[in-house]
């Protein structure tokens, strides 16, 4: 619905900008505090939230302290490999369910859909016990493998594959391509928007995940950034400038990815209606 | 000819299952198997530190759960939380979506700004809000302008849950706003044009066109939001050092499950029973959702 009255529009802008300040404000305050020297933190509000003498020393300090670099590395590995595996396996499964007729198809499809309704908390304990039997606690296997498939991703890919004309595949088949060849070389490249949305959501979900790595990563070298930052917060509890500088390492990559891929994000959330 | 067709058919089936192997193995091992295992475990008194003492106690864990004051408190907290957060975030998200789709300039900027909290890790959100809620933090500073004395928001049993509620409204509104925006964009302009010709006011168009046609989105968002709030864990865990305090004021069902299983008690059977109860509640809500809006919701 278009609104034409000028005074109404003015009120609209005030409200919209006001709410933008509420959402962005905490981030701006965090950046500003992370740039403040410890002895100046208490002066911050008197100075309209600006650091009296901006400094990068908090960031330098964080990078040098203990395992911080290792945590960043772990997060990149866990989120990166997890996302790659998920996108590949989900697409394979989605393709089989969309395009190949085989006995048991309905059953497999409904079983996969049903797993979407299961709350993470319910399966947490058995997952933990299984991983401890496998000897995968405190390892990359334990952090990555349970999340290499997602039911929602399979569902999404199946929907996309169903929209691609079958004639394309028939032509490829006549040219002698195998099923995998058709999937990999013909069909998959046509689903780029779905793949992009999947990559973004899975990467973000894994990158931001806290509950699982907090349970599985026991030694400091195996912490992901989320877990590390949490323990870090407890150690440096009153040094907000350092804690907030640390949290920038988790936030800034996400915001950059988000700003670059904003279009896919909106598309993705509209399609999926959910996060992660 | 027939045997060739048959062998082709067999090959197709084999290929299909080959493509599905990773999905079946991973979901079977880490999702479907665990659900059954959790239900099984819920009938046992099972301490992970001394598995040899595990014994079958039937419904014992469930009976204990219904008498457990902390579990009751956790459940009450989650209900209060949902009752407060769900309507608030939906109303704000809807109002923002209505404002953004009026043809104002900078629509894209507002969407980005509103969506940023949604993509931020719960760990970072918790740290930022602990800072804002601290005694010398931003919230108390702003309240100070109005002569309101400072409060230790997270350390006070009367304000701790409210603090987490406000924070979560902040962090999820953007996500629902995008969904509402998509729903609004699906309503054909011709409906509004026809209503304008008939002289309908803005409020009349909102009341008789927008809201009814937005019903599927609204119900979908409300169920998503309720299920999400029932599973609240990260924020109370992160903001109270895993305690759900002060005085269980921010204890949630999932946090209590976690505490029982891994937080020092190691009562895997009891924790599994609590988790199973949560699962049943969520299944019931999903069923109600299906009954309510049946085929209307497409996603």
TrEMBL record, chain A:
Keywords noted in UniProt: Cell membrane, Membrane, Sugar transport, Transmembrane, Transmembrane helix, Transport
Pfam families: BPD_transp_1
TM region(s), chain numbering: 12-35, 71-95, 107-128, 140-161, 182-204, 239-261
UniProt main location, coarse: membrane
Localization, UniProt: Cell membrane
InterPro entries: MetI-like, MetI-like_sf
Domain ABC transmembrane type-1 intervals: 72-261
Topology relative to the membrane: Multi-pass membrane protein
Family statement drawn from the similarity comment of this UniProt entry: Belongs to the binding-protein-dependent transport system permease family.
Protein name according to UniProt: Multiple sugar transport system permease protein
Provenance organism: Symbiobacterium terraclitae
UniProtKB/TrEMBL annotation, chain B:
Species this chain originates from: Symbiobacterium terraclitae
Entry keyword Iron: no
Pfam families for this protein: BPD_transp_1
Subcellular localization: Cell membrane
Superkingdom to which the source organism belongs: Bacteria
Keyword check for Metal-binding: no
Domain annotation ABC transmembrane type-1: ranges: 75-289
Similarity remark: Belongs to the binding-protein-dependent transport system permease family.
Transmembrane segments: 16-40, 78-100, 112-133, 160-182, 213-233, 268-288
Keywords, comma-separated and alphabetical: Cell membrane, Membrane, Sugar transport, Transmembrane, Transmembrane helix, Transport
Segments forming a coiled coil: none
Topology of the protein relative to the lipid bilayer: Multi-pass membrane protein
Protein name: Multiple sugar transport system permease protein
UniProt signal peptide: none
């Amino acid at each position: 619905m278009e609104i034409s009255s000028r005074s109404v529009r003015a009120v609209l802008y005030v409200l919209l900008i006001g709410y933008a300040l509420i959402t962005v404000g905490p981030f701006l305050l965090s950046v500003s505090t992370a740039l403040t020297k410890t002895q100046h933190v208490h002066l911050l509000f008197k100075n309209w939230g600006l650091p009296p003498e901006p400094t990068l020393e908090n960031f330098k300090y964080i990078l040098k302290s203990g395992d911080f670099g290792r945590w960043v590395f772990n997060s990149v590995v866990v989120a990166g490999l997890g996302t790659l595996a998920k996108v590949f396996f989900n697409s394979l499964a989605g393709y089989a369910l969309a395009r190949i007729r085989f006995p048991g198809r309905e059953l497999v499809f409904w079983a996969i859909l049903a797993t979407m309704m299961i709350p993470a908390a319910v399966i947490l304990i058995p997952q933990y016990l299984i991983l401890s039997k496998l000897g995968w606690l405190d390892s990359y296997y334990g952090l990555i493998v349970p999340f290499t498939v997602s039911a929602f991703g399979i569902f999404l890919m199946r929907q996309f594959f169903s929209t691609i004309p079958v004639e394309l595949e028939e032509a490829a088949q006549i040219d002698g391509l195998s099923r995998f060849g058709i999937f990999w070389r013909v069909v998959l490249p046509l689903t780029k928007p779905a793949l992009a949305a999947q990559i973004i959501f899975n990467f973000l979900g894994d990158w931001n995940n806290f509950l699982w790595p907090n349970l599985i990563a026991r030694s400091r070298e195996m912490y992901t950034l989320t877990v590390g930052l949490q323990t870090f917060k407890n150690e440096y509890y009153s040094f907000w400038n350092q804690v907030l500088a640390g949290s920038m390492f988790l936030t800034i990559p996400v915001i950059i990815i988000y700003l670059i891929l904003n279009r896919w994000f909106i598309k993705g959330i509209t399609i999926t209606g959910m996060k992660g | 000819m027939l045997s060739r067709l048959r062998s082709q058919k067999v090959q197709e089936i084999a290929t299909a299952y080959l493509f599905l192997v990773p999905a079946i193995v991973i979901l079977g091992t880490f999702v479907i198997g665990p659900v059954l295992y959790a239900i099984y475990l819920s009938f046992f008194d099972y301490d992970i530190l001394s598995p040899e003492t595990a014994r079958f106690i039937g419904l014992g864990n469930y009976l204990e759960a219904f008498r457990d004051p902390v579990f009751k408190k956790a459940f009450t907290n989650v209900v209060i939380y949902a009752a407060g957060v769900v309507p608030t975030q939906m109303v704000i998200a809807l109002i923002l979506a209505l404002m953004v789709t009026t043809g104002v300039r900078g629509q894209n900027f507002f969407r980005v700004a509103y969506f940023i909290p949604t993509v931020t890790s719960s760990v970072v959100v918790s740290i930022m809000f602990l800072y804002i809620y601290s005694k010398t933090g931003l919230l108390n500073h702003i309240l100070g302008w109005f002569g309101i004395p400072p409060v230790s928001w997270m350390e006070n049993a009367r304000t701790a849950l409210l603090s987490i509620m406000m924070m979560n409204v902040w962090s999820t509104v953007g996500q629902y706003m995008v969904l509402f925006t998509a729903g609004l964009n699906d309503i054909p302009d011709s409906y509004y044009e026809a209503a304008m010709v008939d002289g309908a006011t803005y409020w009349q168009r909102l009341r008789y066109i927008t809201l009814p046609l937005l019903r599927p989105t609204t119900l979908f968002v409300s169920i998503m939001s309720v299920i999400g709030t029932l599973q609240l864990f990260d924020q109370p865990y992160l903001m109270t050092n895993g305690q759900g305090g002060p005085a269980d004021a921010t204890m949630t069902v999932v946090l209590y499950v976690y505490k029982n299983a891994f937080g020092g008690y190691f009562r895997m059977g009891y924790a599994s029973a609590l988790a199973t109860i949560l699962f049943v509640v969520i299944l019931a809500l999903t069923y109600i959702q299906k009954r309510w809006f049946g085929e209307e919701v497409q996603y």
